[in-house]
Amino acid sequence: MSINATLIGQMITFALLVWFTMKYIWPPLFDSLEERRKKIAEGLAAAEKGQEDMILAEKKAKGVLKEAKEQSSEIVSLAQKRANEIVEESKELAKKEGERLLVSAKAQIEQEMQQARESLRQEVVALALSAAEQILGAEIDHGKHQDILSKVSNQLG
Amino acid sequence: MATEVHAAEGATGYIIHHLTPLHFGEGFWTLHLDTLFFSALLGGLFIWFFKSAAEKATAGVPGLVQSFAEMLIEFVDTQVKDSFHGRSQLIAPLALTIFCWVFLWNFMDLFPVDIFPLIGSLMGIDYLRVVPSTDLNATFAMSISVFFLIIFYSIKIKGAWGFAKELMFQPFGPWLLPFNLLLKLVEEIAKPISLALRLFGNLYAGELIFILIALLPWYIQPVLSFPWAIFHILIITLQAFIFMVLTIVYLSMAHEDH
């Protein structure tokens, strides 16, 4: 177990190994590690940014949705109002029409009543005249007794 | 199996055989060929794996190889960032190299103790010690390199005078200069020695225990070597980790100006 020239040989080998590692092994491997680390960091940052963007977009979408909802509810309420108005209008119209119909019907009824009354009066007059004729036993001359007849008929009307 | 081969020399012979490196040359100029070969091979394996990951490196979806390499890179980078606050192009790659290389060295310990010597003997190699971290030369080569880096950065950051001042005037002020100097020198020199000996001691002891277990009858061996191997998985990783972290800490201390 003695120290000898092997020591020198080993030192040379060691120096060569260290030199080679320093020159050709460490830098490329370490650089690739660093580069990957950077890439991963960038990727993570991008992912974070994407997430933020997504949150922003979501917020925006929510806003748009809310606006749309408000608008639609506005439209619906407007439509309801308009519908109510239309209903009111048509109700009014119907009422007016009904009144008009009622008035005209009443007028017709009046007229018919007048007519009926007229014809009834004439019939009554005729009946009264015939009754008077029978009572008097003589014919009443329409021409002669025009005054009386019209007086009676007026009394009956 | 190999027990019979060394039966003539007994258990001691077997152990000595396993702990003797394949050497070449005399005196100081001895080379441990197995240590040099296996550590270079494992270093090549490390380089090859990471190089293939680095070539295909992409910031997109990483492949299996790249993921594994990046896992180690991030692990080392975290350790470096935890204790080292300056800027340095060297420390992180250095720490990665140390961790992976030492781990691979130590990993050789998990192969059955006889398998590589057996293959070696078939190829006509008498001695083969495959775990580089059981060779003091390997661990000291690394820790002394780290020591040189500590000195280099201390002088580079603090200046030669600043470093000398730190050695002389701390921790007890200028009146106890010799004492300070002694303390500081011991402190500095203790760093590479403790680094190297800790790794060497752990792995050498671990290997020795594997060898001792291999001396027992075959029916007892699994009962002992299995839990020891599992425990060793922890040890080899831990030792690689300790070597790396201490290197980072020492170098960050060298960078700190008081």
For the structure shown, list the relevant keywords.
heterodimer; A: 157 residues; mainly alpha; 2 helices; B: 258 residues; two-stranded antiparallel ribbon; 9 helices; globular
**What share of residues of chain A is helical?**
over 70%
Topology, number of strands of chain A:
0
What's the helix count of chain B? 9
Question: Major sheet of chain B: size, sense and barrel closure?
Answer: 2 strands, antiparallel
The secondary structure category of chain B is mainly alpha
Count of distinct strands of chain B? 2
Using a beta-carbon cutoff below 8 angstroms, give the protein chain pair with the largest interface and the number of residues from each chain. A-B, 33 and 48 residues
- End-to-end Cα distance of chain A: 168 Å
Overall description:
The complex is a heterodimer of chains A (157) and B (258). Chain A has 157 residues and is an all-alpha fold. Chain A is built from 2 helices and no strands. Chain A has helices at 6-136, 146-156. In chain A, helix 1 (6-136) runs antiparallel to helix 2. The model of chain A has no long low-confidence stretch (mean pLDDT 88). Chain B is built from 9 helices and 2 strands; from the N terminus they run H-H-E-E-H-H-H-H-H-H-H. In chain B, strands 1-2 form a two-stranded antiparallel ribbon. Chain B starts with a helix and ends with a helix. Residues 1-7 of chain B have low confidence and may be disordered. The interface between A and B is large, with 33 and 48 residues.
